[in-house]
Structure formats: structure tokens, C-alpha cells
Task: inverse folding
């Protein structure tokens, strides 16, 4: 299992060993979208910080696990990240796949207009299979490293706004915005759950309004993306959610 303490020092990590052994939450996340959009690569980059140019088509449902400290909290979540198999074989497994998911990434390929046009069908799949009030959805435009894009930032953002999703442009190849997107999704799931906790007295968040949308000028604009990881020697940017 992988750990992500969001850039904590060694000493902090020692202090947190106990906490992370006993996660405060278990979150099931799913990635959906057209075949070849990069779902497996996004997962692989996040969980193993690796990328395979010749990523093979996923033949079975793959579940990866990773511990993550929830941004700006002392809470740890264990993520159970479910990656789909090819579209053709997916129907029979759909109920099991969507069951109890609390977060969903809708992934399209920025160099494939078709994969973007199919996104709303994938969203319909999510909303018909899971409780829409509970699942937090985020749109990811992957392959931001490639020059031949067919989907503009504005088109994707407009769609995301219409559905009240967050939107980030990412690259599984370079790692751009990958960790940021998981951090944002996890934080929103946490917020939604806290707000649903009757002991806190907070009001229940209305369905379909999970995300504070990213504004123009934020880091997901083309050419302004975050390069992550300590190896790059850059200060970790804060989640924009
Ligand atoms: N250039 C580039 N290629 C990518 C990226 N993500 C995935 N790929 C490639 O796109 C192809 C499909 O990726 P894969 O993760 O298998 O897509 P999936 O079918 O949605 O799981 C593979 O050849 C990957 O190497 C990316 O961010 N940039
Ligand atoms: Mg795959």
C-alpha cells in the first residue's frame, strides 16, 4: 500500500505512523471514461509514480490502494481506487463497480474530441448507478503534455460548470496535476461527509453542488500546470477546491 502524507517531513511522518495505520476513512474512488483516455495511467502515476508508454488495455477491474492525509486536516483516508476494464465487457460488472463509490473521476483525452463528447454518457452511467447526492465527481482532461489537443480548456470548463464538477487538466505522463486532482477529490469527499454528519449540526450539502469550481487563472489553465513531487524541488501548491 502506498502512503501520501502531502510532503510531510520525516519527523512528522514518524509521529503519524500510528494515525495512518488506522485510517479515519475508507473511500472508494472510481475512474471512468473512454478506453485509452488514460484511466489506468492516471492511477498508476498516482499510486506508483510510474508511467508506461505502452500501457496495456485493462482486462479486469483493478483495485489499487493508497493512504492519503486529507489536505489541511489530521485525518487519514485509505483510498480504494477502482479502474475499469474495456467498455465492451463493462456492463455486467457495473453494479459491483459503482457500488459504494464516494468519488468519481470522469477521464477524457484532450487529444480526442470523441472521448470528450462521450463524457456526458459516462456521467449518466455514474448518476444512474450511484446515489448522486453522495458521489463527488471531478472531470479530468488527460494528456495535457501533448500538443495536438482537440478540446479547449474553455469547452471542458463550460461543460464542467454546467454539471457543477471540478475540472483539471492533467498528464499521467509528466505527473502534472495528478496528485492535486486526487487531493481535491478526497478533500471534497471529506467535506461532504462532515457536512452530512448529524453530530456536527451542519446542514446537508445539496446534491449536485459538490465543488467550488476552479476559476480562470488557476493552475489548471493550459501552460500553468503544477509540476509535482519533491524531486522537482518546488513548494507543494495548495489544493484549489
Ligand atoms: N502522452 C501521453 N500519453 C498518455 C497519457 N496517459 C496515458 N497515455 C497513453 O495513452 C494510452 C492509453 O492509456 P491507458 O491508461 O491504458 O488508458 P485507459 O484505457 O483509459 O486505461 C497508453 O498508450 C498510455 O501510455 C498522458 O498523460 N500523456
Ligand atoms: Mg485501462
Result:
Amino acid at each position: 500500500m502506498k502512503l501520501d502524507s502531502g510532503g510531510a517531513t520525516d519527523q512528522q511522518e514518524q509521529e503519524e505512523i500510528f494515525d495512518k495505520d488506522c485510517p479515519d476513512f475508507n473511500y472508494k474512488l472510481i475512474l471512468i471514461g473512454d478506453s485509452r483516455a488514460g484511466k489506468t495511467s492516471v492511477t498508476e502515476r498516482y499510486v506508483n509514480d510510474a508511467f508506461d508508454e505502452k500501457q496495456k488495455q485493462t482486462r479486469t477491474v483493478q483495485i489499487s490502494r493508497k493512504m492519503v492525509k486529507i489536505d489541511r486536516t489530521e485525518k487519514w483516508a485509505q483510498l480504494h481506487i477502482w479502474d475499469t476494464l474495456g467498455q465492451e465487457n463493462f456492463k455486467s460488472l457495473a453494479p459491483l463497480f459503482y457500488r459504494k463509490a464516494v468519488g468519481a473521476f470522469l477521464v477524457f483525452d484532450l487529444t480526442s474530441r470523441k472521448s470528450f463528447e462521450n463524457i456526458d454518457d459516462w456521467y449518466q452511467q455514474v448518476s444512474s448507478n450511484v446515489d448522486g447526492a453522495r458521489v463527488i465527481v471531478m472531470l479530468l482532461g488527460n494528456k495535457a503534455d501533448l500538443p495536438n489537443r482537440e478540446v479547449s480548456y474553455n469547452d471542458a470548463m463550460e461543460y464542467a460548470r454546467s454539471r457543477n464538477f471540478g475540472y483539471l487538466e492533467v498528464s499521467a505522463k509528466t505527473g502534472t496535476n495528478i496528485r492535486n486532482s486526487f487531493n481535491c477529490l478526497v478533500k471534497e469527499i471529506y467535506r461532504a461527509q462532515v457536512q452530512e454528519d448529524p453530530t456536527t449540526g451542519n446542514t446537508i450539502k445539496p446534491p449536485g453542488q459538490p465543488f467550488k469550481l476552479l476559476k480562470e487563472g488557476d493552475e489548471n489553465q493550459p501552460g500553468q500546470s503544477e509540476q509535482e513531487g519533491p524531486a522537482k524541488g518546488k513548494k507543494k501548491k495548495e489544493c484549489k477546491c
Notes: The chain has one domain: 2-240. The two ends are 26 Å apart (CA to CA). Confidence is low (pLDDT under 50) at residues 203-239. The pocket of magnesium ion (ligand 2) is lined by residues 39-40, 58, 83 (CB under 6 Å).
